[in-house]
Amino acid sequence: MSRAIRKPAPDTPAAVTANEPALSEAYSEQRPRLRELTPYLALMREHRGWLGIGALLALITLLAATGLLALSGWFLSATAVAGLSVAATQAFNFFTPAAGVRGLALARTAGRYGERVTTHEGTLRLLASLRRRLFEAIEPLSPAALQHAGQGELMTRLGADVDALDSLYVRVLIPSLVAVCAILAAGTLIGIFAPTLALVAVIGLVLTGGLVPWLAWWRGSRDAMRHQSSASRLRARLLERLQGLGELVIYGRWNEELERLAEQQAERDSIERAQARRQALASWLSHSLLGLTLAGVALLGVMQMAPYANNDMTMHSGELLDGRLMALFLLAVLGAFEALAPLPLAWQGLGRCLSAAARLNSVQANTPAAQFPNPSEAATPVGHALEIEQLSVTHGDTPVLEELSLTLAAGEHLALLGPSGSGKSTLLDVLSRFHIPSAGRITLGGVALESLDEATLRASFAVCPQDTHLFCASYADNLRLAAPEASDEALTRMLESLGLGDWLARQPQGLAGFPDEGGRSLSGGQLRRFGVARALLSPAPIVLLDEPCEGLDRTSAEQVMSAILAACEGRSLIMITHQPLGLERFARLALLEAGRLQEDATPTTLSRDSRLASLMERTA
Ligand SMILES: Nc1ncnc2c1ncn2[C@@H]1O[C@H](COP(=O)(O)OP(=O)(O)OP(=O)(O)O)[C@@H](O)[C@H]1O
Question: Is residue 24 within 8 Å of 153, Cβ to Cβ?
């Protein structure tokens, strides 16, 4: 059995063991390096407008918030002190600081709003670019290359990993930048009046904003990576097992599977608990450092304090400090701390960003097996004759096709027979360039397949693989995948010719109806014929069909055969079949065994003792 897209290998039946998709093996216990982020930082340059404005507004908001706290603190204490004497009350200017407080409050609110709007706009644009890049990297990979990924793993990479990177800008870079500025702003503000106190405040804030986040990153990054890997494995396993739910229930393995899922979930939960403990520790550490800083500033300030009556607030060398400034100093430190508080959590999450970046980088590093030339450099085939010369194909180290040579004139119909596993579907994969041969040459219209640009190659072949996938779109849209211009009448005629007329008549919305996910609302035989209809509707000059009559009763199979041969009149056809049905209607018959072409003849030139002849007799 062969499919263009193979499902991951099944579990061993003895115990449904974990069979993780190959992509998750890219995860390693090693702490990912910062350089994994380089492509994403480069991507940020594309959106520097929004991201830059966001950063600027974040700074304005911070300065306004710190200024507001400091000014209000000073204003309160200065007002209280001024109230102690009538002369001081009359001399005190209430209006300028009050206007300053109002102005700073307005600036803080407007800044915060603008910052949220711009940083989110920038981040969403960044994520859109990131997803586009990822899709562009995945798209040229053949289904055969993606088969190793597993659906759950790929979904995680496209969803959770990309989302993890949005925290890089909003939760790590911006808060870190804001924190540095907050320390500088608080230090400068305090330093204007009391340089020694500023030094103490800056040392305390640097320890809080530098040491604690660094510890959180250093100690927490491994947990973040383990959590991401564990959550992704759990999601991939859950998805895969749900797809095979029927088999697991039938063979009584579902409860066992539930236990395994619960074990995996417990592993993920324990990592989450460890992360929560680290967060609590980091929070305790930064609040303790804040307390020490405040105490240090307060103690030193009290030691340098001047009597209240002194109206000259600046402290010249050798002079004492004005007590009214104490509230300003302490609130400036508190205001700056507001910017530092989210850093430990953010830096703990940096590990998640880095491992997401590493996993996405590994997807993007996949080079497509098939490289197509640019349309301007591509060759143009003359006609549609196919020539296969000495073709050898391996899967891993196992040879599948060996020195196979075959020609198909334009418009010729070939039935390809052979026992299961002889390499028939692999040949179709090679013609579609989903699989690259290890040796040999294939030409189409005199041009090597690899010299054709992708659009020409795809327009040359209509392929119906063994598994038909129905997309979540109307039946009509599913059929138009191969023939966008086809009218509803043409679609209906094609379905009727394949014996699907009654089925269509039973659909309440006809062609406008929607299939269940993946086409489960159709029986196996109906789904197969739907796939055949899709391929036959395509105007491609060469039609490749993989066992189109498999699973059909004799009458339906004969009807499908007739429809195929009628639709392929004037077009080349390679039809893989196990059923010796209607073979006499083919111009050519070929037999593939163990990857080698054993027989290649026309129905009339077949020798009576050939394997093909005996197959033909079974047809009659
Ligand atoms: N992606 C793959 N990875 C590894 N081995 C593969 C892969 N695809 C096919 N094979 C192996 O290559 C051989 C040929 O497979 P292929 O599907 O081409 O045979 P087939 O003649 O089409 O079989 P069937 O008639 O059962 O569909 C088989 O032994 C199969 O196990």
Answer: yes
Domain check: are 130 and 220 in the same one?
A: yes
Structure tokens at 209: 């904003």
End-to-end Cα spacing for the chain: 26
- Closest Cα partner for 43 from 129, 122, 118, 132? 129
Q: How far apart are CA 94 and CA 444, in angstroms?
A: 89
Using most ligand atoms within 8 A of CB, pick from 7, 148, 426, 427 the residue to mutate for ligand 1: 426
Looking up residue 321, the CATH number of its domain turns out to be 1.20.1560.10
- Give the Å distance between the CA of 3 and the centre of ligand 1: 8
For residues 323 and 376, give the distance between their C-alpha atoms in angstroms, rounded to a whole number: 79
| Number of C-beta neighbours around residue 616 at 10 A | 17
The Å distance, Cα 466 to ligand 1 centre, comes to 12
Does residue 9's CB lie within 6 angstroms of at least one atom of ligand 1?
no
- Residues 178 and 286 placed together within one structural domain of the fold: yes
The answer to whether residue 403 is domain-embedded is yes
3-state helix, strand and coil shares in percent for the chain, rounded to the nearest 5: 60, 10, 30
Angle between helices 38-46 and 48-82 (to 10 degrees): 90
- Relative orientation angle of helices 38-46 and 343-364, to the nearest 10 degrees: 90
Number of the ligand 1 atom closest to the C-alpha atom of 466: 27
- Domain of 148, in residue numbers: 33-364
| Nearest atom within ligand 1 for CA of residue 427 | 18
Q: What is the Cα–Cα distance from 244 to 221, expressed in whole angstroms?
A: 35
By the 8 A CB rule, do 143 and 434 touch? Answer: yes
What mean pLDDT is predicted for residues 207-226? 85
- Looking at residue 29, what is its pLDDT? 55
Statement to judge: residues 423 and 553 lie in one domain: yes
Handedness of CA 423, 425, 428, 429 (dihedral sign): negative
Are 348 and 391 within one domain? no
- Interval 29-34 mean pLDDT: 68
Compute, in angstroms, the gap from residue 150 CA to the centroid of ligand 1. 19
Residue 575 confidence (pLDDT): 95
Whether 396 and 322 share a structural domain? no
Backbone angles phi, psi at 588, to 5 degrees: -135, 145
Task: Indicate if 271 and 329 belong to the same structural domain.
Answer: yes
For ligand 1, atom 6, the nearest C-alpha belongs to 395
Distance (Å, whole) CA 22 – CA 604: 49
For ligand 1, the distance from its centroid to the CA atom of residue 400, given in whole angstroms, is 7
Q: What angle do CA 313, 314, 315 make, to 5 degrees?
A: 115
- In this structure, the answer to whether residues 318 and 394 fall within a common structural domain is no
Domain count, the chain: 2
My answer on whether 428 and 342 are in the same domain is no
Ligand 1 atom with least separation from CA of 3: 17
- Please state, in angstroms and rounded to a whole number, the distance separating the CA atoms of residues 71 and 375: 67
Q: How many CB atoms lie under 10 A from the CB of residue 124?
A: 13
pTM of the predicted model as reported, rounded to 2 decimal places: 0.68
Verify whether ligand 1 is closer than 6 Å to residue 424 (CB atom).
yes
What pLDDT shows up at residue 409?
94
DSSP-H helix ranges across 244-374: 245-250, 254-303, 325-340, 343-364
The minimum-distance atom of ligand 1 relative to the CA of 592 is 21
Residue 83: pLDDT band by 50, 70, 90 thresholds?
confident
